[in-house]
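Postdoc handover notes: sequence design on the structure in folder B. Input tokens:
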């Protein structure tokens, strides 16, 4: 899909955003073209990742360990490609940077199912520890995903903390809470944002 179709890519109204976003100039056609090329190159590079995963799975199958191995595919952050006039990077409280893929395969994991429970990357370590039958040596920030995989109706009844730093900052520049429906953020500048994730999934209008 062409990158220019991304919601909020170029001429979207950013008057509801903090000053850091409002003060950014619209993206020029030349910049749009460069981002389009970078986006395509990123997709092409994933072919090597796909091939590498295939080799690992083949080796696990050949050694008889595939069905006894928990495989977790994810990322530590997303990346902007022009959304909200953010030309590149991460560290801001919008879904292109916050949402990441999470694919799990292994013992006790339902095949071909998609789950919608609210989880965090802090849950990955407890999941691996439980799958390996290991007791952690310190208190964990997250909770194992294995019970959620066993029961799609189970929820932990918690909101998710989100926080991030602008480039070069030594401490979080913003922090907030994410629920199934809303995301609320407070910036170090005192500015605030609130989005209805159901009615406005692209975070185009702060409430």
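Designed sequence:
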């Amino acid at each position: 899909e062409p990158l220019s179709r991304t919601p909020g890519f170029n001429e979207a109204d950013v008057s509801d955003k903090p000053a850091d976003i409002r003060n950014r100039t619209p993206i020029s056609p030349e910049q749009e073209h460069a981002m389009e090329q970078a986006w395509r190159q990123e997709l092409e590079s994933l072919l090597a990742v796909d091939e590498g995963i295939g080799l690992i799975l083949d080796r696990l199958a050949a050694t008889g360990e595939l069905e006894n191995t928990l495989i977790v595919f994810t990322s530590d952050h997303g990346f902007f490609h022009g959304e909200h006039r953010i030309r590149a990077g991460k560290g801001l409280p919008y879904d292109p940077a916050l949402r990441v893929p999470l694919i799990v395969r292994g013992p006790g994991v339902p095949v071909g199912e998609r789950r919608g429970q609210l989880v965090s990357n802090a849950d990955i370590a407890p999941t691996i520890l439980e799958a390996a039958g290991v007791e952690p040596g310190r208190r964990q920030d997250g909770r194992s995903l294995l019970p959620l995989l066993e029961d799609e109706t189970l929820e932990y009844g918690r909101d998710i903390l989100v926080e991030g730093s602008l480039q070069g900052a030594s401490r979080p520049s913003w922090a907030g809470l994410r629920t199934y429906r809303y995301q609320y953020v407070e910036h170090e500048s005192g500015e605030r944002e609130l989005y209805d994730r159901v009615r406005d999934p692209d975070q185009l209008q702060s409430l």
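Context for whoever picks this up: The beta strands are 71-74, 102-105, 160-164, 174-178, 182-187, 192-196. Don't rerun without checking with the PI first.
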